[in-house]
Write a structure and sequence with these properties.
- By secondary structure, this protein is an alpha/beta fold.
- It has a single domain, classed as Aldolase class I (TIM Barrel).
- The chain has an eight-stranded parallel β-sheet with strand order 4-11-10-9-8-7-6-5. A two-stranded antiparallel sheet has the order 1-12. A two-stranded antiparallel sheet has the order 2-3.
- Helix 6 runs parallel beside helix 15 and helix 14 packs across helix 15.
- The termini are far apart.
Amino acid sequence: MPHLESTWTHSLTRRDAARALAAFAAGSPLALAQQDPFRDHSRVPAIDELLNAFDFEAVAYAKLPRQAYDYTAYGTDGEFTMRRNREAFSWVDLTPCVQSIAKPDTALTLFGKPHAFPILLSPTAGHLQLHPAAEAATHQGATAARTTMIVSNVASLPINEIAAAAPGPLWFQFYPREDLTAARDTLDRAQAAGCQAIVVTVDQQAPVFERDLHGRHLGPIARRLPARQPAAANPYRISDRRLWYSWKYLDQIREMVKVPMLAKGILTAEDARLCLEHGLDGVYVSNHGGRSLDYAPATLEVLPEIVDAVAGRVPVIFDSGIRRGTDVLKALALGATAVCLGRVPRWGLGAYGAPGVQRVVEILQAEFVQAMAAAGRPNLAALNRTLVRTDFP
Protein backbone atom coordinates (compact mmCIF):
# COMPACT_ATOMS: atom_id res chain seq x y z
CA MET A 1 0.00 0.00 0.00
CA PRO A 2 1.40 3.45 -0.92
CA HIS A 3 2.65 5.52 1.99
CA LEU A 4 -0.06 8.19 1.75
CA GLU A 5 -2.83 5.64 1.73
CA SER A 6 -1.36 3.88 4.77
CA THR A 7 -1.17 7.17 6.67
CA TRP A 8 -4.77 7.95 5.76
CA THR A 9 -5.96 4.52 6.90
CA HIS A 10 -4.38 4.83 10.39
CA SER A 11 -5.17 8.49 10.97
CA LEU A 12 -7.89 9.81 13.32
CA THR A 13 -11.42 9.71 12.11
CA ARG A 14 -13.46 12.86 12.44
CA ARG A 15 -15.38 11.18 15.28
CA ASP A 16 -12.18 10.36 17.20
CA ALA A 17 -10.86 13.85 16.62
CA ALA A 18 -14.08 15.38 17.92
CA ARG A 19 -13.97 13.12 21.00
CA ALA A 20 -10.36 14.12 21.74
CA LEU A 21 -11.17 17.81 21.32
CA ALA A 22 -14.14 17.49 23.69
CA ALA A 23 -11.99 15.76 26.29
CA PHE A 24 -9.37 18.50 26.01
CA ALA A 25 -11.98 21.18 26.48
CA ALA A 26 -13.62 19.40 29.42
CA GLY A 27 -10.26 19.10 31.17
CA SER A 28 -9.40 22.74 30.80
CA PRO A 29 -9.19 24.69 34.07
CA LEU A 30 -11.14 27.42 32.32
CA ALA A 31 -14.19 25.16 32.19
CA LEU A 32 -15.36 26.08 35.70
CA ALA A 33 -18.74 24.49 35.11
CA GLN A 34 -17.09 21.09 35.17
CA GLN A 35 -15.76 21.52 38.72
CA ASP A 36 -17.64 20.59 41.88
CA PRO A 37 -18.68 23.81 43.62
CA PHE A 38 -18.06 22.35 47.14
CA ARG A 39 -14.56 21.97 48.55
CA ASP A 40 -14.35 20.58 52.10
CA HIS A 41 -11.00 21.54 53.59
CA SER A 42 -11.68 20.10 57.02
CA ARG A 43 -9.46 17.25 58.18
CA VAL A 44 -9.21 14.70 60.95
CA PRO A 45 -6.44 15.87 63.28
CA ALA A 46 -3.55 13.62 64.16
CA ILE A 47 -4.11 11.74 67.39
CA ASP A 48 -1.25 13.51 69.17
CA GLU A 49 -2.87 16.87 68.45
CA LEU A 50 -5.76 16.14 70.81
CA LEU A 51 -5.34 17.53 74.31
CA ASN A 52 -8.26 16.19 76.35
CA ALA A 53 -11.18 13.76 76.24
CA PHE A 54 -13.58 16.34 74.83
CA ASP A 55 -11.38 16.69 71.73
CA PHE A 56 -12.00 13.01 70.97
CA GLU A 57 -15.76 13.52 71.06
CA ALA A 58 -15.52 16.12 68.29
CA VAL A 59 -13.53 13.76 66.06
CA ALA A 60 -15.88 10.84 66.75
CA TYR A 61 -18.85 13.06 65.92
CA ALA A 62 -17.26 14.03 62.60
CA LYS A 63 -16.48 10.44 61.62
CA LEU A 64 -19.46 8.43 62.86
CA PRO A 65 -22.94 8.05 61.38
CA ARG A 66 -25.40 10.18 63.30
CA GLN A 67 -27.21 7.20 64.81
CA ALA A 68 -23.97 5.72 66.15
CA TYR A 69 -22.94 9.01 67.71
CA ASP A 70 -26.39 9.58 69.22
CA TYR A 71 -26.43 6.12 70.78
CA THR A 72 -23.31 7.06 72.70
CA ALA A 73 -24.42 10.61 73.49
CA TYR A 74 -27.97 10.47 74.70
CA GLY A 75 -29.56 10.05 78.10
CA THR A 76 -33.09 9.07 78.96
CA ASP A 77 -36.13 11.37 78.60
CA GLY A 78 -35.08 15.04 78.94
CA GLU A 79 -31.48 14.06 79.82
CA PHE A 80 -31.62 15.93 83.14
CA THR A 81 -29.65 13.32 85.05
CA MET A 82 -27.04 13.03 82.32
CA ARG A 83 -26.41 16.78 82.53
CA ARG A 84 -26.50 16.70 86.34
CA ASN A 85 -23.76 14.06 86.37
CA ARG A 86 -21.41 16.58 84.83
CA GLU A 87 -22.72 19.59 86.77
CA ALA A 88 -22.12 17.82 90.07
CA PHE A 89 -18.36 17.96 89.56
CA SER A 90 -18.59 21.76 89.62
CA TRP A 91 -20.08 21.51 93.12
CA VAL A 92 -16.86 20.02 94.46
CA ASP A 93 -13.80 22.24 94.95
CA LEU A 94 -10.29 20.91 95.40
CA THR A 95 -8.32 22.31 98.36
CA PRO A 96 -4.68 21.31 97.86
CA CYS A 97 -2.09 21.33 100.61
CA VAL A 98 1.31 22.97 100.26
CA GLN A 99 3.52 19.96 99.63
CA SER A 100 5.79 19.07 96.73
CA ILE A 101 5.05 15.67 95.15
CA ALA A 102 7.25 14.74 92.20
CA LYS A 103 5.65 11.44 91.22
CA PRO A 104 2.47 10.28 92.98
CA ASP A 105 1.88 6.54 93.37
CA THR A 106 -1.36 5.61 91.57
CA ALA A 107 -1.13 1.84 92.06
CA LEU A 108 -4.16 0.00 93.42
CA THR A 109 -4.88 -3.57 94.44
CA LEU A 110 -8.49 -4.48 93.74
CA PHE A 111 -9.85 -7.94 94.60
CA GLY A 112 -6.28 -9.13 94.91
CA LYS A 113 -5.29 -7.93 91.42
CA PRO A 114 -2.85 -5.06 90.77
CA HIS A 115 -3.98 -2.00 88.81
CA ALA A 116 -1.64 0.74 87.62
CA PHE A 117 -4.39 3.33 88.07
CA PRO A 118 -7.75 3.41 89.87
CA ILE A 119 -9.44 3.75 86.47
CA LEU A 120 -11.38 1.06 84.56
CA LEU A 121 -13.61 1.02 81.48
CA SER A 122 -17.35 0.89 82.17
CA PRO A 123 -19.44 -1.72 80.36
CA THR A 124 -21.02 -0.22 77.23
CA ALA A 125 -22.84 -1.98 74.42
CA GLY A 126 -22.46 -2.29 70.67
CA HIS A 127 -18.91 -1.16 69.87
CA LEU A 128 -19.26 -2.45 66.31
CA GLN A 129 -21.17 0.68 65.37
CA LEU A 130 -18.11 2.70 66.43
CA HIS A 131 -15.34 0.66 64.75
CA PRO A 132 -15.11 -2.49 62.62
CA ALA A 133 -12.98 -4.26 65.24
CA ALA A 134 -15.62 -3.51 67.90
CA GLU A 135 -14.86 -4.58 71.49
CA ALA A 136 -11.69 -6.35 70.37
CA ALA A 137 -10.19 -2.94 69.56
CA THR A 138 -11.45 -1.50 72.85
CA HIS A 139 -9.77 -4.33 74.75
CA GLN A 140 -6.54 -3.80 72.82
CA GLY A 141 -6.57 -0.09 73.61
CA ALA A 142 -7.38 -0.70 77.27
CA THR A 143 -4.59 -3.28 77.58
CA ALA A 144 -2.10 -0.87 76.01
CA ALA A 145 -3.16 1.74 78.58
CA ARG A 146 -2.80 -0.81 81.43
CA THR A 147 -6.51 -0.58 82.16
CA THR A 148 -9.15 -3.22 82.91
CA MET A 149 -12.14 -3.34 80.56
CA ILE A 150 -15.58 -4.38 81.82
CA VAL A 151 -17.24 -6.14 78.89
CA SER A 152 -20.94 -5.51 78.32
CA ASN A 153 -23.41 -8.40 78.37
CA VAL A 154 -24.68 -7.00 75.05
CA ALA A 155 -21.32 -6.57 73.36
CA SER A 156 -21.04 -6.90 69.59
CA LEU A 157 -18.60 -9.82 69.89
CA PRO A 158 -18.64 -13.01 71.98
CA ILE A 159 -16.71 -12.73 75.22
CA ASN A 160 -14.14 -15.35 74.18
CA GLU A 161 -13.27 -13.36 71.02
CA ILE A 162 -12.85 -10.16 73.03
CA ALA A 163 -10.66 -11.94 75.57
CA ALA A 164 -8.46 -13.38 72.80
CA ALA A 165 -7.85 -9.93 71.27
CA ALA A 166 -5.44 -8.79 74.00
CA PRO A 167 -3.78 -10.15 77.14
CA GLY A 168 -5.10 -7.50 79.52
CA PRO A 169 -7.58 -8.21 82.35
CA LEU A 170 -11.33 -8.23 81.83
CA TRP A 171 -14.43 -8.04 84.00
CA PHE A 172 -17.91 -8.93 82.74
CA GLN A 173 -21.20 -7.07 83.12
CA PHE A 174 -24.30 -9.25 83.42
CA TYR A 175 -27.94 -8.33 82.83
CA PRO A 176 -30.24 -10.50 84.98
CA ARG A 177 -32.11 -13.25 83.12
CA GLU A 178 -35.10 -15.01 84.64
CA ASP A 179 -34.11 -18.27 82.99
CA LEU A 180 -31.49 -19.47 85.45
CA THR A 181 -30.16 -22.03 82.98
CA ALA A 182 -29.49 -19.27 80.44
CA ALA A 183 -28.04 -17.09 83.19
CA ARG A 184 -25.66 -19.86 84.23
CA ASP A 185 -24.55 -20.37 80.63
CA THR A 186 -23.72 -16.67 80.22
CA LEU A 187 -21.87 -16.48 83.52
CA ASP A 188 -19.96 -19.70 82.84
CA ARG A 189 -18.78 -18.44 79.44
CA ALA A 190 -17.60 -15.17 80.94
CA GLN A 191 -15.66 -16.90 83.69
CA ALA A 192 -14.23 -19.47 81.29
CA ALA A 193 -12.93 -16.57 79.17
CA GLY A 194 -10.97 -15.36 82.18
CA CYS A 195 -13.14 -12.50 83.47
CA GLN A 196 -11.90 -11.60 86.94
CA ALA A 197 -15.15 -10.15 88.31
CA ILE A 198 -18.86 -10.14 87.50
CA VAL A 199 -20.80 -6.85 87.61
CA VAL A 200 -24.57 -7.39 87.82
CA THR A 201 -26.55 -4.40 86.57
CA VAL A 202 -29.56 -3.83 88.82
CA ASP A 203 -30.91 -0.49 87.60
CA GLN A 204 -33.56 -0.04 84.92
CA GLN A 205 -32.20 1.08 81.56
CA ALA A 206 -34.75 3.25 79.78
CA PRO A 207 -36.35 1.63 76.71
CA VAL A 208 -37.02 4.95 74.92
CA PHE A 209 -34.63 7.83 74.32
CA GLU A 210 -36.19 11.06 73.08
CA ARG A 211 -33.09 12.25 71.24
CA ASP A 212 -33.10 9.04 69.21
CA LEU A 213 -36.74 9.61 68.25
CA HIS A 214 -36.19 13.26 67.35
CA GLY A 215 -33.32 12.35 65.03
CA ARG A 216 -34.88 9.31 63.44
CA HIS A 217 -35.20 10.93 59.97
CA LEU A 218 -31.80 12.65 59.96
CA GLY A 219 -29.63 9.64 59.19
CA PRO A 220 -29.21 7.72 55.94
CA ILE A 221 -31.81 5.20 57.10
CA ALA A 222 -35.00 6.27 58.81
CA ARG A 223 -35.50 4.58 62.15
CA ARG A 224 -38.84 3.20 63.16
CA LEU A 225 -40.67 4.50 66.19
CA PRO A 226 -41.00 1.96 68.99
CA ALA A 227 -44.37 0.32 69.21
CA ARG A 228 -46.70 2.13 71.60
CA GLN A 229 -48.41 -1.12 72.50
CA PRO A 230 -45.57 -3.57 73.13
CA ALA A 231 -45.85 -7.29 73.38
CA ALA A 232 -45.17 -7.02 77.12
CA ALA A 233 -48.22 -7.55 79.30
CA ASN A 234 -48.29 -4.00 80.66
CA PRO A 235 -49.34 -0.59 79.31
CA TYR A 236 -46.09 1.20 80.11
CA ARG A 237 -43.79 0.29 77.19
CA ILE A 238 -41.45 -1.47 79.63
CA SER A 239 -39.86 -4.66 78.38
CA ASP A 240 -40.58 -7.79 80.37
CA ARG A 241 -36.79 -8.24 80.53
CA ARG A 242 -36.66 -5.40 83.08
CA LEU A 243 -38.06 -4.52 86.49
CA TRP A 244 -38.65 -8.07 87.72
CA TYR A 245 -35.43 -8.84 89.56
CA SER A 246 -34.95 -8.78 93.32
CA TRP A 247 -32.33 -9.38 95.99
CA LYS A 248 -33.42 -13.02 96.05
CA TYR A 249 -32.28 -13.31 92.43
CA LEU A 250 -28.79 -12.14 93.36
CA ASP A 251 -28.74 -14.86 96.01
CA GLN A 252 -29.72 -17.41 93.33
CA ILE A 253 -26.93 -16.51 90.92
CA ARG A 254 -24.30 -15.95 93.61
CA GLU A 255 -23.48 -19.65 93.69
CA MET A 256 -22.85 -19.56 89.93
CA VAL A 257 -20.14 -16.93 90.29
CA LYS A 258 -16.71 -18.05 91.44
CA VAL A 259 -15.08 -14.63 91.15
CA PRO A 260 -15.92 -11.37 92.96
CA MET A 261 -19.47 -10.16 92.23
CA LEU A 262 -20.67 -6.56 92.39
CA ALA A 263 -24.06 -4.86 91.99
CA LYS A 264 -24.05 -1.95 89.54
CA GLY A 265 -26.66 0.81 89.77
CA ILE A 266 -26.57 1.53 93.52
CA LEU A 267 -27.70 5.07 94.41
CA THR A 268 -28.74 4.84 98.08
CA ALA A 269 -27.07 3.95 101.35
CA GLU A 270 -29.89 1.48 102.03
CA ASP A 271 -29.17 -0.50 98.87
CA ALA A 272 -25.46 -0.39 99.61
CA ARG A 273 -26.10 -1.99 103.00
CA LEU A 274 -28.29 -4.62 101.32
CA CYS A 275 -25.40 -5.44 98.98
CA LEU A 276 -23.34 -6.31 102.03
CA GLU A 277 -26.15 -8.31 103.62
CA HIS A 278 -26.45 -10.41 100.47
CA GLY A 279 -22.77 -11.18 100.38
CA LEU A 280 -21.70 -9.09 97.39
CA ASP A 281 -18.02 -8.31 97.08
CA GLY A 282 -18.38 -4.72 95.89
CA VAL A 283 -20.79 -1.82 95.38
CA TYR A 284 -20.90 -0.05 92.02
CA VAL A 285 -22.36 3.47 92.24
CA SER A 286 -23.91 4.33 88.87
CA ASN A 287 -27.00 5.79 87.23
CA HIS A 288 -26.15 4.25 83.87
CA GLY A 289 -24.60 7.52 82.71
CA GLY A 290 -27.99 9.23 82.91
CA ARG A 291 -29.60 6.49 80.81
CA SER A 292 -31.75 4.96 83.54
CA LEU A 293 -34.28 6.98 85.58
CA ASP A 294 -34.30 10.65 84.64
CA TYR A 295 -34.23 13.04 87.64
CA ALA A 296 -32.28 10.50 89.64
CA PRO A 297 -29.43 12.18 91.53
CA ALA A 298 -25.96 12.56 90.11
CA THR A 299 -23.74 9.74 91.29
CA LEU A 300 -21.24 12.17 92.82
CA GLU A 301 -24.00 13.56 95.08
CA VAL A 302 -24.82 10.19 96.64
CA LEU A 303 -21.29 8.79 96.71
CA PRO A 304 -20.39 10.04 100.23
CA GLU A 305 -23.45 8.50 101.90
CA ILE A 306 -22.85 5.18 100.16
CA VAL A 307 -19.19 5.19 101.16
CA ASP A 308 -20.22 5.87 104.77
CA ALA A 309 -22.72 3.00 104.67
CA VAL A 310 -20.15 0.57 103.29
CA ALA A 311 -17.57 1.73 105.85
CA GLY A 312 -14.62 0.19 104.01
CA ARG A 313 -15.94 -3.38 104.10
CA VAL A 314 -15.94 -3.75 100.29
CA PRO A 315 -14.64 -1.67 97.37
CA VAL A 316 -16.88 1.11 96.03
CA ILE A 317 -16.68 1.55 92.25
CA PHE A 318 -18.00 4.76 90.69
CA ASP A 319 -19.05 5.95 87.23
CA SER A 320 -21.22 8.45 85.35
CA GLY A 321 -19.80 11.78 84.21
CA ILE A 322 -16.00 11.30 84.47
CA ARG A 323 -14.26 13.40 81.81
CA ARG A 324 -11.12 14.79 83.46
CA GLY A 325 -8.32 13.66 85.73
CA THR A 326 -9.61 16.13 88.32
CA ASP A 327 -12.99 14.35 88.15
CA VAL A 328 -11.21 11.12 89.08
CA LEU A 329 -9.46 12.91 91.95
CA LYS A 330 -12.75 14.31 93.30
CA ALA A 331 -14.52 10.93 93.20
CA LEU A 332 -11.63 9.20 94.99
CA ALA A 333 -11.44 11.97 97.60
CA LEU A 334 -15.14 11.41 98.32
CA GLY A 335 -14.46 7.74 98.97
CA ALA A 336 -14.58 5.80 95.70
CA THR A 337 -12.07 2.98 95.45
CA ALA A 338 -11.87 3.27 91.66
CA VAL A 339 -13.75 4.96 88.84
CA CYS A 340 -14.93 3.79 85.42
CA LEU A 341 -15.07 5.58 82.07
CA GLY A 342 -18.10 5.02 79.85
CA ARG A 343 -18.46 7.51 77.00
CA VAL A 344 -14.81 8.59 76.98
CA PRO A 345 -13.31 5.35 75.57
CA ARG A 346 -16.20 5.16 73.10
CA TRP A 347 -15.12 8.55 71.74
CA GLY A 348 -11.58 7.24 71.43
CA LEU A 349 -12.76 4.09 69.65
CA GLY A 350 -14.98 5.98 67.21
CA ALA A 351 -12.26 8.51 66.47
CA TYR A 352 -9.17 6.32 66.02
CA GLY A 353 -9.92 2.71 66.93
CA ALA A 354 -7.70 0.91 69.46
CA PRO A 355 -5.03 3.66 69.48
CA GLY A 356 -7.80 6.17 70.26
CA VAL A 357 -8.94 4.16 73.26
CA GLN A 358 -5.38 3.92 74.50
CA ARG A 359 -4.64 7.60 73.97
CA VAL A 360 -7.78 9.02 75.56
CA VAL A 361 -7.37 6.80 78.64
CA GLU A 362 -3.71 7.78 78.92
CA ILE A 363 -4.70 11.45 78.78
CA LEU A 364 -7.00 11.01 81.79
CA GLN A 365 -4.31 9.03 83.58
CA ALA A 366 -1.79 11.82 83.00
CA GLU A 367 -4.29 14.45 84.13
CA PHE A 368 -4.96 12.43 87.26
CA VAL A 369 -1.26 12.18 88.09
CA GLN A 370 -0.84 15.91 87.57
CA ALA A 371 -3.87 16.65 89.77
CA MET A 372 -2.54 14.41 92.55
CA ALA A 373 0.86 16.09 92.39
CA ALA A 374 -0.67 19.57 92.44
CA ALA A 375 -2.87 18.59 95.38
CA GLY A 376 0.17 17.36 97.31
CA ARG A 377 -1.09 13.79 97.69
CA PRO A 378 1.64 11.12 97.38
CA ASN A 379 -0.60 8.05 96.97
CA LEU A 380 -4.20 6.87 96.82
CA ALA A 381 -4.37 6.36 100.58
CA ALA A 382 -3.82 10.09 101.00
CA LEU A 383 -6.96 10.94 99.02
CA ASN A 384 -9.74 11.76 101.46
CA ARG A 385 -12.39 14.39 102.14
CA THR A 386 -9.88 16.89 103.46
CA LEU A 387 -8.97 17.41 99.79
CA VAL A 388 -12.42 18.66 98.79
CA ARG A 389 -15.05 21.20 99.74
CA THR A 390 -18.56 20.26 98.59
CA ASP A 391 -21.60 22.42 97.89
CA PHE A 392 -24.24 19.91 96.86
CA PRO A 393 -27.79 21.35 96.65
